[in-house]
Specification:
Shape: globular
Number of helices: 4
Low-confidence stretches: 1-52
Helix content: under 10%
Number of strands: 31
Strand content: 35-45%
CATH architecture of the largest domain: Beta Barrel
CATH topology of the largest domain: Thrombin, subunit H
Mean pLDDT: 78
Distance between the termini: 11 Å
Length: about 450
């Protein structure tokens, strides 16, 4: 079972399309939200001595972390295409000194190192398949897949200038789950049973579409308490940093906790073991990133090493494992309906015919509404009788648009082939559906 192969677009034509996209979108400011290097949470003061650095500061540039350096080519920075600077045979990141960008005190580490605009980290887990945190790509940033760049090689040695061949673009969202809507807070995610992850497919931004894929890391077994692990990522937009840690304790079905030193920008980055196997995805820090020191400057908040409530929440791999292990032989079956439909009072049914074989193990549903009644309920159903719970909106913006994007395991066992229906129960005649899309995986 495969998606229809996308036509290979010549690099020159894709370069022209990219320039048109940039002309339309303009140079958009980086997204805001949890994990964003451009919008780091700043607490009024360190609370109970909690901070992003737990105990001794072991943040190390990847080139100096010999054991983990081989994985550097599998980790990338996630930013907007519109923020990139197109040079001759290279691409420049929007880089400025970390100390100036975040008003850090002069004695802080890395103050003179270049910090790039962006909002998270990702890791290759299969051929052209990137894993990250679900909140990094959430629609609350008004962020579409076509706007996302995945940049490999943002290291200290690169100096913010990346070879053209190491910059990729998102071409398809494969799966995403997000606890309690708009990213929420670390405390919300800590108590959630819903994981925080996304998987998306990439291709070269400007090079040939069929160019060799960058290397990826294999999935490791479930973690055990006390194992040696390290978080790789781009804290505050810095070049790739390694922070060693250990698995501190279990936090339930969706997450576990480590004492890795991370900050905004690490979200979505990998937690690797010494064998360079992926053991989890960075989801959230449990404490402020920066703290003011008087009116003059800010410092990286530090936690005591014995603090039980400090550290970093890591998403477990179990919810995404089946999709990753089947990729790319089983890339899923996708169907899309883009005609505008006005909603009437009562039940509105929007059918979508899907061709495929086998039963679904997971279904990704995405829907875009305008002026949807706040009391309306939305469900996904199959002609065989399978029906999802009510789908929560990811975002209802001030522009009147509402977006739903959820990966559903509730529909496991439903036939893939047949008529799927988006059911909208609206208390009154109000709103429109502009588009909805379904991707089904059979394992």
């Amino acid at each position: 079972m495969h998606l229809a192969q996308r036509p290979v677009v010549p690099a020159a034509d894709r370069r022209l399309a990219l320039l048109l996209l940039l002309a339309v979108t303009g140079c958009v400011a980086p997204g805001t939200g949890p994990g964003g290097a451009a919008d780091v949470f700043v607490g009024a003061s360190p609370q109970d001595d909690k901070g992003d650095v737990v105990g001794p500061d072991d943040r190390t540039p990847v080139a100096e972390a010999e054991r983990y350096a081989p994985a550097a080519r599998s980790v990338g920075y996630i930013t907007r295409i519109a923020s990139l600077d197109f040079l001759d045979n290279a691409i420049g990141l929007d880089v400025g000194p970390l100390g100036e960008r975040y008003d850090l005190c002069p004695e802080e580490r890395f103050v003179d190192v270049g910090s790039a605009r962006g909002f998270g980290t990702g890791v290759l887990v299969g051929p052209n398949l990137v894993a990250t945190a679900g909140h990094v790509l959430h629609h609350g940033k008004d962020l579409g897949c076509e706007e996302v760049a995945f940049v490999v090689g943002h290291t200290l040695e690169a100096g913010g200038v990346i070879p053209e061949a190491d910059v990729y673009r998102c071409v398809r969202l494969v799966a995403r789950r997000l606890p309690l809507g708009l990213g929420g807070t670390a405390a919300v995610r800590e108590s959630s049973t819903v994981p925080d992850y996304a998987l998306f497919e990439i291709e070269p931004l400007l090079g040939e579409a069929d160019a060799a894929a960058p290397p990826w890391v294999p999935l490791g077994p479930p973690v055990e308490e006390g194992e040696e692990v390290a978080a790789l990522g781009h804290p505050l937009g810095l070049p790739l940093i390694v922070s060693r840690s250990s698995v501190v304790r279990d936090r339930g079905a969706a997450f576990f906790l480590t004492h890795a030193d991370v900050s905004g920008g690490n979200s979505g980055g990998p937690l690797l073991d010494p064998a360079l196997r992926l053991r989890g995805i960075v989801a959230a820090e449990l404490q402020p990133s920066l703290a003011p020191r008087g009116a003059e400057c800010r410092t990286i908040a530090v936690s005591d090493e014995g603090c039980d409530d400090c550290g970093t929440l890591i998403t477990r791999l179990d919810p995404m494992r089946a999709i990753v292990e089947a990729w790319p032989e089983d890339a899923g079956v996708q169907a899309d309906a883009s005609s505008i439909a006005r909603l009437a009072a009562g039940r509105n049914v929007l059918p979508l015919a899907v061709e495929g074989e086998g039963d679904a193990a997971q279904v990704l549903v995405e829907a875009w509404f305008y002026d949807l009644d706040g009391r309306a309920s939305v469900r996904l159903a199959h002609e065989s009788g399978c029906r999802s719970p009510i789908l929560r909106p990811e975002r209802t913006g001030t522009d009147g648009y509402t977006v739903i994007a959820q990966s559903l395991t509730h529909l496991a066992g439903c036939p893939i082939e047949g008529e799927w229906r988006l059911e909208i129960d609206s208390p009154r005649a109000r709103g429109q559906v502009h588009r909805w899309r379904l991707t089904a995986f059979d394992r």
